[in-house]
Design brief:
Blueprint (H helix, E strand, L loop, with lengths): L6 H7 L7 H6 L7 E6 L10 H6 L5 E5 L10 H11 L3 H9 L2 E4 L2 H4 L11 H11 L13 E7 L2 E7 L12 H4 L16 H11 L5 E6 L17 H13 L4 E5 L5 E7 L5 E7 L17 E5 L3 E10 L2 E10 L4 E9 L1
Parallel strand pairs: 1-2, 2-3, 5-6, 6-7, 7-9
Antiparallel strand pairs: 1-11, 4-5, 8-9, 8-10, 11-12, 12-13
Helix pairs in contact: 4-7
Length: 339
């Protein structure tokens, strides 16, 4: 009789973990994981000791999720100078020589703190980003969002990197911000913009065994007062709704918050959605210890970066999410089947 349980349910009922001998017998002996390194918030004015640890590890790909530099002034000249300084980083040069690299921006490497589409030099910022981060982009003129498809042991891993800056509007209406301002048009806050949404929905419908979405700001954590997807509730609901409906399982990676944490949300569809935040190559901040997050399953407040290891049991992704500090110590790991 055919089993009524999925492979994931059977393993959980048996109490098996990836490191257990029984699980090892089920897995392929020569199984080598696909490894994605990622992080955000890197200040070239601060200590760069994390590079030695980062470059000692083996990655299949590495993704920078924003605030990859911090200009001393929020001006175009300040941004140009910061790129010049980042270009001198021997650690980054070494990484790019041995591993494929992709990147998105957040507010500081876009041009100014909490900047949006009203940034006066956003076109110039776009040009600077594309010159420095040489990669393929989905649009010639609508921002820096992109995607890549990787193959691992006959399965497809689809990495989708979003641009949450170039088309972003304020999330509060001008009327709410200033009662003296009036407008005949209804205010509709936008995070991604219409063209990026059209592209994203098409990307999410492409066949893959696992989708990984990179966002410069947190998607699931919603209780803090800083930038997050929940500031744009319509777009948050739209994204989460799509991820609950598509056939491919999805993992979200994010940055920005100067902490490292994993959030988990149970969707109406029954799917568990993870958002793994890694923020602070060298800018993790102790103040983040006071942030509430009812969806949190792991947290660390030290400098470091994130690492995602993907293995396959049958056609199911077994994902291990680890935060690694600048000395190379693994500060937390959370593993689960992503279905």
């Amino acid at each position: 009789m055919e089993s009524r349980f999925s492979r994931r349910q059977i393993l959980k009922l048996m109490g098996l973990s990836l490191c257990s001998p029984a699980f090892s017998k089920l897995a392929v002996a020569a199984d080598t994981p696909w490894v994605l390194g990622f992080g955000s918030c890197m200040d070239t004015r601060k200590n760069q000791s994390f590079w030695e640890t980062l470059n000692a590890r083996s990655f299949s790909h590495f993704a920078f999720l924003g605030d990859n530099l911090y200009p001393e002034r929020d001006t175009l000249i300040g941004l140009e100078t910061a790129y010049q300084k980042l270009g001198l980083s021997e650690g980054l040069k070494k990484l790019r020589e041995r591993v494929s690299v992709s990147a998105i921006w957040d507010d500081h490497d876009f041009g100014a703190d909490n900047a949006d589409a009203s940034l006066p030099f956003r076109r110039e910022s776009l040009a600077l980003f594309r010159i420095f981060w040489t990669q393929d982009y989905a649009s010639d003129d609508d921002g820096i969002y992109s995607s890549q498809m990787f193959e691992h042991q006959g399965r497809k891993i689809h990495l989708i990197l979003l641009d949450a800056r170039f088309n972003r509007t304020a999330y509060e209406s001008p009327k709410k911000l200033d009662s003296n301002l009036t407008s005949s048009k209804p205010f509709e806050p936008s995070l991604l913009g219409a063209r990026q949404w059209e592209w994203l929905e098409a990307e999410l419908n492409r066949p893959a065994d696992l989708k990984i979405i990179g966002s410069s700001i947190q998607v699931l954590s919603a209780e803090h007062r800083f930038e997050k997807w929940m500031n744009y509730p319509d777009e948050y609901e739209r994204l989460v709704g799509i991820l609950g409906r598509i056939s491919a399982p999805t993992l979200i990676l994010s940055g920005d918050r100067h902490l490292h944490e994993i959030s988990k949300k149970q969707l109406v569809s029954g799917r568990a959605l993870y958002d793994f935040t890694s923020s602070g190559f060298n800018k993790a901040e102790g103040l983040s210890r006071f942030e509430r997050n009812k969806l949190r399953v792991q947290r660390n407040l030290d400098d470091g970066f994130g690492e995602v290891q993907i293995r396959w049991v049958d056609n199911v992704a077994y994902v291990s999410m680890s935060m690694i500090d600048k000395t190379g110590e693994v500060r937390f790991t959370h593993s689960d089947f992503v279905v």
